[in-house]
Amino acid sequence: MIATCGSARRSLARAFADRDAGPVLLFVEGSAGLGKTHLLRELADLPETPDVARLWWRCGAEGGGPEEDEAWREPTLLLVDDVHRADEDELRRLRRVLAGLEPGSAAAVTYRPEELPVPGMPLGGSAMTYPFRLTVLRDRLAPWDEERVRRAAAEVLGGSESCTAEAVSALRERTGGVPRAVVDLLAMLREQRPVFTGTAAEVAAAGVPTRLAELVLSRTYALSPAHRPLVWAAAVLDGPAAGDELIAVSGLGAVPGSDALLRALESAALAELGEGHYGFAVPLAAAAVRDTVPGPVRQDLHRRAARALGRRQPVAWASVGEHHRAAGECRGWLRAVEKAAESAAASGRHQEAITLLERTLATPGIPPQARARLAPLLARNAVTGLRSDQTVEVLEQIVRDADLPPAVRGELRLDLGLMLSNQMGRFEEGWRVLEVAAAELREVRSVLAARAMAALVTPYWPGASLDVHRGWLIKASAAADDSGDDAMRTAVLANHVGLAMSWADPEAWDLVEQLPVQSTDPACVRQAARGLCNAADSAVWLGFYRRVDGLLTEGRELATRSGAPYTEHSASGTRLLQEFWTGQWLGLAKRCEEFVADTADMPFLSSDAYVVRGLLAVAHGDWGEARSWLSQRGTFGTENLPVPLGATAAGAVIRLTLARQEVADAAEQARAAWTVVAEKGVWPWAAELAPWAVEALARAGDTATAHAMVRDFAQGLGEADAPAARAALAWSRAVLAENDALAEGRPDGLLAAAETYRKAAAAYAELPRPYSQALTTECAGRCVLAADAGGGEAGEGGEAGEDGEAGKGRASASGEAPAAPACDRATTASAIAGLEACAQQFTDLGAVWDATRARALLRTRQPAKKGRPPGRPSHSDQLSPREAEVAQLASSGLTNREIAATLHLSPRTVEQHIAGAMRKTGALSRRDLAHRI
């Protein structure tokens, strides 16, 4: 476990390499726990010295060491452990033995430098006369660095998930990297119940290992009672402290305090940690000493520590507060907490401020006046930063406090409403809280009333219509102007930008230009950053992908500079959406998963990542994973997703349901999702839902509702400049045209539908959106092939040669399609070329399911082949191309029925292909097949 000192190994290896060379004496110093004895054991096992005799000498042990007149006629390695324990007689004997070392021999002597009777002289107070031929070396063991601590943690904890970077950093800090302390503390964590999960708080709460506690307490209480308060002061300060601070906290006075510091250093109770700064060599030891200090004495020490730390610059107010609290000084504690939180917030360390304030406000008996000061501070930090459910619970309790002034209660209710809506995804509840807050604040604080009204302008939440948000915009703008507050005006402008961009207001881009990005007021800059990021998010939904980069770059830079981590994280979610739509799929799944992990405490913040990951899973054919990701993995209700994100997720779920031939369920899902978008009235947000919802209703036979959807979509868009929605409208019209043509048996209608699909594909190519372009190109090709089928079913005869069955049904991106009479060869050839291109585009993106489906559609136009042509491989021991496709989809989790629908095969044929693939690969199950292929 404890590493050998590499230089010590090399030094002794050289001594034995040349038997004619002079002897070598190696001194190895290291404080308690650094692994000196372990080092000697490793030196004793040096592979370079197979013929060398080993002699152990454990100083201070009865009968330890060889006789001083023992004649060494063969090469010998003398291993001397803990020479600081030797008495005068043993030291004299050791000195004579070392002076008599012969060529070909060596000695390694270890000691604790802090326990030597004479500092720097391991062999006693008088200088030793070293023989001329003796080479004398000195080495020093060092504490472990963080990487070495990580390896030890992985070894002891089994390399489990609890071996986190946070835990490793805390271990290194608490133990000072002293190997013995690290190993002992890890052993305690391994046995911890409940099981250690890898947090720094768990490391801090684990306690002090027995070996370390006994060592530091023995050294402390070896001091005289008059000197111990100096060590107690170091334990209370719990970190490197200047000598005058230690003396001031100890209460000993200058002269007695200086004397006590010298005695503490001589006894190794304390160590010099830096020039003029002192403390415990192992920081964890402070807790062991602190626990032994009598209560009244400890309170006095904390009182003096608070005063001493208050004189440092800059003042560590959080530490000052903890000392006031431990001293029983409630007012001083609360004042220090307030200053610490304000300082942290001013420098953008919102999470630090939140944690401190939550812990403080959760303490019973906090005076109402203090709660009225601290609670708004918590709320402001929580809204700006990142927070968990705990803050919401604290605020919900505080707003029920009847002793709070109305203005304070209104402010807290405002921040609570913002958190419920923006960070927790509890829109309906948050909306109600914000409406109450706006009413409460209207009479007492116009600035905050404007802030509440501005929050109600945000259109993303389900429920309220676009007209309701416009009404709140009018009220918020008037309140902001009345307040005369520039930051408030900017906040309203930022929300106005989001509202205008959402429905493609022609003035939206002019509003973006009005954001005060050059302001020197941090509050204005934070709001401007939010406005830019709101604009970027809306630009993604509208389809202005080329403008997103500039908005996000500037918005994130302003958010970082002004300390707005929530805005930074929301911008990261927008980036993931942009990357999906524009086809930047390489590594995107991993980026989504990392973002979800980074925001685990606030899953709503990562809802963009969940949906993008789900969309990727659909394209990859990982349908089980797709359902899980699209439902946010149960972290919160999907009905609370922002409207555009909810519509996108719903569209993907409807597509999956259609692919599974569950048409009635798909239609019900389509009606429910469409109702949410229609009630909101922001029609560009229907873009990712409309094509799939229209297809679901059309295939379910509810063509009247499907036509009404397309009509409402078109009327709702009007003349709005929303490129993604325009492309989706063309796609939706093509779906209707295809369905009507199939129902009426009109080949010309299928060709017209194909032309509309091609227009949609061209619109998507312009954006650019390669995946949507490929999907609509595939649909166009499907329509042409169906028109060219001559009245038979699409794909008739295409599978008879190899699979024994022709594909049947509508060969859509999510289901089946019959055929119609033929069209001209040029049109068919063009459609086939388009299908080949989109199949390759799917492959390049990594859309396994889509690529397989497109290739299957192409095969329906290949003539049936009887028997096997000369030279055609039999695939007797290798997977055939069809077996490989089926195995790929099966390993992704698709059922036989789902694979059959995708590849235009019967479930029986799919079953035969899977059986063949398992036999050829030796797979024991479908899951095993995934690894084999």
TrEMBL record:
Residues 859-869 have a biased composition (Basic residues). The keyword Nucleotide-binding applies. It comes from Streptomyces filamentosus NRRL 15998. GO terms for cellular component: cytoplasm. The keyword RNA-binding does not apply. Keywords: ATP-binding, Nucleotide-binding. It comes from the Bacteria. This is Large transcriptional regulator. Residues 872-933 form the HTH luxR-type domain. GO terms for molecular function: adenylate cyclase activity; ATP binding; DNA binding. InterPro entries: P-loop_NTPase, Sig_transdc_resp-reg_C-effctor, Tscrpt_reg_LuxR_C, WH-like_DNA-bd_sf. SUPFAM superfamilies: C-terminal effector domain of the bipartite response regulators, P-loop containing nucleoside triphosphate hydrolases.
